[in-house]
Amino acid sequence: MYFAPLLAQDAAATMDVSAELTQNILTTNNVWMMLSTALVFIMHLGFAGVEAGFGQAKNTVNILFKNTITPIIGILTYAVAGFYLMYPGFETPGWFGFDASGWSMFWFSPGDADVTSAYADGGYTYWTDFLFQAMFAATAATIVSGAIAERVKLWAYLIFTLFFVGLVYPIIGSWKWGGGALDDMGFYDFAGSTLVHSVGGWGALAGVILVGPRIGKYVNGKTVDKPGASVPLAVIGVFLLWLGWFGFNGGSVLSADPGLVSFVLVTTCLAACAGGMGGFLAGYFVFKRLDLGMVLNGVLAGLVGITAGADVINPGSAVIVGFVAGILVVLSAVLLDRLKLDDVVGAVSVHLTCGVWGTLAVGIFSTNPDHSFITQLMGVAICGVTAFVSAFVIFYVLKMTVGIRVSEEHEKSGLDSHEHGIRGYTIVYDE
């Protein structure tokens, strides 16, 4: 009888400690997720550097303008519709859903947003969830930008981005990450080799086909190199993307789990290194020179390749995945040129070719016996057909209405002076 108050006090103290521990775990997880969000955001600067570095000097401002406006449109569009299309919480796994209640809460009742440990198993808050996923969405559109640079109409590209990020990407993403039909069939894509990278790559391929090659790129059956504006800028861009990938893959753990996050970062980095080595060796074998561009794209290829299975592919296998991706990116670039498909930065080769490879690699190297190569192949095919057809239709409608290609005069003299009134590289001497 006399011990009852003491027992009650002990129980209350235990509950307080438990609540404090839960809150501390939530805080730690959420801080890591916000840091990962910032790292993914930095990738947009990396994309801008790569595209401006590999593009011609006369189009630098145009390229930087697109890479600046893309995340702006992408994040706003994702806030308006994409987030609620992608994460409807299917009651029965299917192909389409929309979370109208979440949309209302976001815009009109933000106080109802769940910022407690009850949301996402204590991994992060509702707001962090939105922002992290919005960065992914904008990345898919940025992939398209680099492939069709230097000859696409700016307004056509911006309209494409609006529909591709606002509708196509989130609907496809919901099939796996939103608990839809692909998730139900056992398809696996940890951080987006298919759902982000190959979706963006399919969009890039559709754009490259419809917009056509740059003037003078293919002459008498030969491929003419178009010197980039700044090799150093391209190198900086690749290293920024590599840095951002630690958040892209590490954040996809969706918590600060020390064991899993560190494992994912190791497999990610090893694949990047192996990809760079694969690009180096394949580039030397094919072009008989030490091709820096192929080393850089090899690094990105390795990163894209490991993204689907960074949490289920062991370090040794990650090296194989990255190395093969580095070789594939070179062979893919050669094939595209033979088909006269002009891709300024190699976006199709990096994100589409290696995104497909990385997703299929899960079915080969995954430590989870539930992951099947056939299921991975089916998922790749379903997402690929949907993304390519959707992007092709959007570009085709734009081509038939507002047009998607600048005039020959503007392309030859450069888009900077015609569309923006300034040049990216200007030397002015005082009189």
Q: Roughly how many Å is the radius of gyration?
A: 23 Å
How far apart the termini lie comes to 98 Å
Q: Which stretches of 5+ consecutive residues score pLDDT under 50?
A: none
Give the number of helices: 15
Mean of residue pLDDT? 88
Question: How would you characterize the largest beta sheet?
Answer: 2 strands, antiparallel
Number of β-strand runs: 2
- Helix/strand-derived category reads mainly alpha
Element pattern in H and E: HHHHHHHEEHHHHHHHH
Name the helicity range.
Answer: 55-70%
Give the DSSP E fraction (strand runs of 2 or more residues): under 5%
Oligomer: single chain
Shape field: globular
- Major beta sheet, strand line-up: 1-2
Entry keywords:
431 residues, mainly alpha, two-stranded antiparallel ribbon, 15 helices, globular
Model description:
It is a single chain. The chain has 431 residues and is mostly helical. The chain is 70% helix and 1% strand. It has helices at 4-54, 60-86, 100-107, 126-147, 154-174, 181-184, 193-211, 231-250, 258-287, 292-306, 315-338, 347-365, 373-401, 408-413, 415-420; strands spanning 218-219, 222-223. A two-stranded antiparallel sheet has the order 1-2.
Structural topology:
Elements: H1 4-54, H2 60-86, H3 100-107, H4 126-147, H5 154-174, H6 181-184, H7 193-211, E1 218-219, E2 222-223, H8 231-250, H9 258-287, H10 292-306, H11 315-338, H12 347-365, H13 373-401, H14 408-413, H15 415-420
Antiparallel strand pairs: 1-2
Helix pairs in contact: 1-2, 1-4, 1-8, 2-3, 2-4, 2-5, 4-5, 4-7, 5-7, 5-13, 7-12, 7-13, 8-9, 8-10, 9-10, 9-11, 10-11, 10-12, 11-12, 12-13
